[in-house]
Q: What sequence folds into this?
């Protein structure tokens, strides 16, 4: 029974108010960038009235089962009465009052069945809402009309009662309706809230557009969730002590001068104090659930205490009197704020306004709502300009001119949070709180990071750093498309491992203006886990001009079984053609490379992976094992292509530089070996030449020695004795 | 093998001529780079594999350009590898631009310089309309000439320019070509009205070049053949003629004849298996 947000989307009553009734109106499809604030100022027609009508109509048509199509017209000033019951049924409604009191209250609200004060319904097709057959009968209580409904009515609509535009000047006594949950007194002349103390189950009380001067008579309504007191004459916020479950408090269009007595409303989510007489904002502590605070059209000069609101996301300060940033400096300390409006304040006229606000409130997603897309466009233009300069497409303009250029798009880029920032209703509030807090990232004008539901868009090389941040599991898990623009492909290659880990579900990659020039660069994409679709925009990617690029991609990334390239489906024929064209390359690359080269090439790639993992090992040790099995699988899948790697030019040159030293050493070593070998060879040759001569001499010497046998024998004996 | 000339060469010259040292140095360098991996299965085996791959011509795969360019054998192996890997592209009939061919080259050699490819393309396109599409065979043969004989071609270009300008680089008076000197003066006038240079004069210069040149040159006899067919020829005309000459292709020994370019039954079998 948690009341959801209020959304007024172009009139469609998309209200999640679940008052425990079977009246949950289904929300319209989530509006992408439409106003998401709850406006209850006078511009929109009676919101709740429409709400009830729509809702009741639905119920009505569903119950009656007749084909009458009722569509609530959005801005129909002639708002229909909520009750859509038939004329005949309305006869059940009776209202009694005394004749005497009538005169006291001026214009009586006596109705006769025949008269129909109420304007016609929205469509003639719909049931005509004719007069409320309210019979005013006298009662024992002086001056209070008593309201009674027929038992049929009571059964049919036991929990809601609408008394809109009944020209009531007092709250009637409502008899026998203790189950009432919804009570609507819009557009009357009631001056005091009375006679509703018995309605202790009341959840929704609408007193919009009356003449109430003081909040009172609500002390028994402990279940009250929605209290609409807009457009009254209330001067002071008071007597709300017991309304601890209050979720929405609307006090716009009153005469309130001070925020007080709201500190106990810890479930309050929406507080509307627009069009009052507030001169400052403080005393907001205790509003622990407040997400939206509307303070438009007041006289506020300074704002305090906003940083004590842990859930505050939207703060509307349009048309006040804020003139310096110091007066709103507490906003900088709020980590949850995501939307702010300052238009119509003197501060918004200052030249430094946007810059300062955005620089100090990094977590902002929207500033002055309307201009968000313009800002994004300007940022992207800036990034594009920088890219073109980098690519030497635009001649570098003169320095002072350059400064002007960089000054004019002074709107720094913002980080847009997920536009489907699902409110922490279902999911843990911790998670979403984290998302909104951490989505305030670097605000510079050189890059832009945007998460839009399932697409992560990165513009400019600085954006790649954002991959380092702690993305919430929910946001990261939803991202299926990653788009890179104005970033060098070589730089993207280096963050691909991070992308693999942080955004595991990314299946579609888009590249625009990323300087893809070689087929080889596609080899780098093979390290990802899975890619279903690839879009390479021709702009800024010359590789698309090649005839064979698609086939090469299909060939190299065949283990992904890609489905689409640049929007066109991949057919079986395409795959066959790719294999035919490049199959031999794969064969050569795998089987003809000597073993040691295979190992070194494959080892290189894996070494890089492990190195990265070791760096992040501290945070996610479990992943190392995953990587092991992952790479094992890789090897099994496409060994014959695995040797086709891509190293960025810088790394390649670095490696060649490293090898130079080794080469020099090898050269010297070989030279030494060669010198040795040639020396030995020379000696060998010399020996060959000299040997015959030497041999002859040896023989001759021996023969000469042995010529005289007897003297030779004597000589030998002599030699032997000498030796001893 | 034991021919007298071989034995007559001094050691260093012999080694240099056969580029033995290049390979030895490279082998040792590779050993150093990958010592952790290689130490696992033995150095002897490494050397076996290395020199086997040198013989087979697969040692140049995915190596840096400086290595590929180092020896004629490397260049020839690279040409052959390029042919084998991308023959299917040619078979498919696709006409590609110079840049795309360069891309394919880079798949095999990451730092292959663009200017070589550009020069090869110029031969095919006769220095005209560089963005034109070229067929695989045209490009391959032109590329062969350009890559294998790149130094030679540079010298030839210089000679050609000199001849065009009227200077005869042959300062040595060759007795059989007194006409060479005689031609010097009117050559100026002739060169400006007629395209290119005179074939025979050109040939004489080239012959001298081949004798002096330490880099590889096409066999002079074949060059003579090319030049004997025409009276005058331009530089690119000469190169085109070179690239299309069967004899020179065979002398190189890297690529099959043009007619057989698309045939490689062994590889086709492999392809079927994939």
A:
């Amino acid at each position: 029974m948690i009341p959801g947000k209020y959304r007024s989307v172009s009139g469609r009553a998309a209200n999640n108010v679940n008052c425990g009734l079977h009246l949950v109106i289904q929300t319209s499809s989530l509006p992408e960038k439409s106003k998401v604030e709850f406006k209850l100022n006078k511009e929109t027609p009676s919101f709740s009235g429409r709400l009830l009508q729509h809702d009741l109509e639905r119920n009505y048509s569903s119950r009656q089962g007749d084909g009458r199509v009722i569509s609530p017209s959005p801005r129909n000033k002639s708002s229909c009465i909520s009750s859509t019951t038939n004329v005949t049924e309305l006869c059940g409604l009776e209202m009694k009052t005394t004749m005497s009191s009538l005169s006291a209250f001026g214009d009586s609200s006596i109705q006769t069945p025949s008269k129909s004060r109420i304007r016609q319904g929205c469509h003639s097709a719909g049931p005509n809402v004719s007069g409320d057959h309210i019979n005013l009968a006298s009662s024992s209580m002086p001056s209070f009309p008593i309201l009674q409904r027929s038992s049929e009515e009571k059964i049919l609509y036991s929990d809601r009662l609408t008394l809109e535009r009944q020209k009531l000047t007092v709250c009637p006594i409502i008899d026998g309706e203790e189950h009432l949950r919804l009570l609507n007194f819009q557009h009357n002349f009631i001056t005091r809230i009375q006679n509703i103390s018995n309605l202790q189950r009341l959840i929704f009380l609408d007193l919009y557009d009356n003449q109430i001067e003081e909040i009172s008579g609500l002390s028994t309504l402990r279940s009250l969730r929605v209290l609409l007191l807009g457009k009254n004459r209330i001067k002071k916020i008071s007597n709300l002590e017991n309304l601890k479950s209050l979720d929405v408090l609307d006090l716009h269009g009153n005469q309130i001068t001070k925020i007080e007595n709201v500190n106990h409303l810890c479930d309050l989510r929406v507080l509307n104090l627009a069009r009052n007489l507030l001169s400052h904002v403080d005393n907001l502590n205790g509003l622990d659930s407040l997400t939206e605070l509307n303070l438009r059209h007041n006289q506020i000069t300074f704002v305090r205490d906003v940083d004590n609101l842990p859930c505050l996301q939207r703060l509307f300060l349009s048309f006040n009197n804020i003139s310096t940033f110091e007066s709103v400096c507490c906003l900088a300390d709020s980590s949850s704020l995501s939307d702010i409006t300052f238009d119509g304040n003197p501060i918004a006229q200052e030249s430094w306004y946007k810059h300062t606000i955005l620089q100090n409130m990094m977590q902002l997603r929207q500033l002055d709502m309307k201009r968000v897309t313009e800002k994004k466009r300007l940022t992207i233009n800036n990034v594009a300009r920088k890219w073109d300069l980098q690519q030497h497409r635009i001649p570098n303009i003169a320095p002072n001119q350059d400064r002007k250029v960089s000054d004019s798009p002074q709107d720094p880029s913002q980080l847009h949070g997920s536009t489907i920032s699902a409110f922490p209703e279902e999911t843990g509030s911790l998670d979403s709180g984290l998302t909104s807090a951490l989505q305030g990232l670097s605000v510079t004008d050189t890059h832009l990071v945007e998460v839009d539901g399932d697409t992560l868009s990165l513009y400019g090389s600085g954006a790649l750093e954002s991959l380092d941040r702690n993305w919430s599991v929910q946001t990261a898990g939803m991202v299926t498309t990653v788009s890179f623009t104005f970033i060098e492909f070589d730089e993207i290659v280096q963050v691909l491992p991070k992308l693999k880990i942080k955004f595991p579900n990314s299946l579609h990659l888009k590249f625009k203006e990323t300087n893809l020039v070689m087929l080889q660069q596609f080899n780098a994409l093979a390290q990802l886990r899975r890619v279903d679709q690839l879009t390479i925009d021709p702009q800024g990617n010359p590789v698309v001009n090649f005839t064979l690029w698609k086939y090469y991609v299909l060939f190299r990334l065949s283990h992904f079984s890609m489905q689409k390239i640049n929007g066109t489906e991949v057919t079986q024929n395409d795959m066959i053609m790719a294999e035919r064209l490049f199959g031999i390359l794969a064969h050569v690359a795998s089987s003809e490379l000597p073993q040691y080269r295979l190992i070194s090439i494959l080892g290189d790639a894996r070494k890089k992976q492990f190195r990265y993992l070791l760096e992040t090992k501290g945070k996610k040790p479990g992943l190392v094992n995953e990587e092991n099995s992952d790479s094992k699988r890789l090897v099994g899948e496409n060994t014959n292509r695995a040797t086709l790697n891509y190293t960025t030019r810088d790394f390649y040159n670095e490696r060649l530089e490293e090898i130079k030293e080794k080469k020099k050493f090898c050269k010297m070593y070989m030279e030494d070996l060669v010198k040795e070998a040639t020396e030995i060879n020379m000696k060998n040759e010399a020996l060959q030449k000299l040997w015959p001569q030497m041999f002859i001499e040896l023989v001759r010497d021996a023969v000469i020695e042995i010529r005289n046998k007897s003297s030779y024998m004597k000589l030998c004996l002599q030699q032997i004795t000498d030796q001893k | 093998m034991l021919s007298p000339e071989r034995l007559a060469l001094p050691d260093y010259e012999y080694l240099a001529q056969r580029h033995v040292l290049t390979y030895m140095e490279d082998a040792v360098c590779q050993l150093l780079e990958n010592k952790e991996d290689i130490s696992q299965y033995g150095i002897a085996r490494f050397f076996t594999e290395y020199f086997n791959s040198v013989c087979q011509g697969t040692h140049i795969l995915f190596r840096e350009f400086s290595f590929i360019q180092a020896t004629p054998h490397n260049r020839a192996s690279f040409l052959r590898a390029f042919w084998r890997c991308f023959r299917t592209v040619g078979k498919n009939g696709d006409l590609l631009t110079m840049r795309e061919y360069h891309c394919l080259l880079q798949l095999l050699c990451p730092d292959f310089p663009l200017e070589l490819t550009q020069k090869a393309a110029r031969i095919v396109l006769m220095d005209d309309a560089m963005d034109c599409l070229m067929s695989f065979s045209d490009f391959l043969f032109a590329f062969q000439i350009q890559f294998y004989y790149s130094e030679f071609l540079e010298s030839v270009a210089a000679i050609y320019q000199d001849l065009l300008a009227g200077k005869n680089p042959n300062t040595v008076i060759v007795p059989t070509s007194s006409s060479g000197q005689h031609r010097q003066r009117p050559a100026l006038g002739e060169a400006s009205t007629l395209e290119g240079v005179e074939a025979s004069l050109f040939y004489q210069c080239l012959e001298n070049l081949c004798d002096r040149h330490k880099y590889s040159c096409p066999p002079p006899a074949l060059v003579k053949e090319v030049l004997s067919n025409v009276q005058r020829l331009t530089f690119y005309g000469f190169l085109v003629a070179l690239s299309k000459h069967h004899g020179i292709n065979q002398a190189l020994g890297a690529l099959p004849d043009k007619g057989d370019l698309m045939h490689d039954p062994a590889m086709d079998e492999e392809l079927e298996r994939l």
User: Anything to note?
Assistant: DSSP finds 17 helices and 24 strands in chain A. Residues 1-139, 396-443, 616-637 of chain A have pLDDT under 50 and may be disordered. Chain A touches chain B through 50 residues (CB under 8 Å). Residues 112 and 167 of chain A are 14 Å apart (CA to CA).
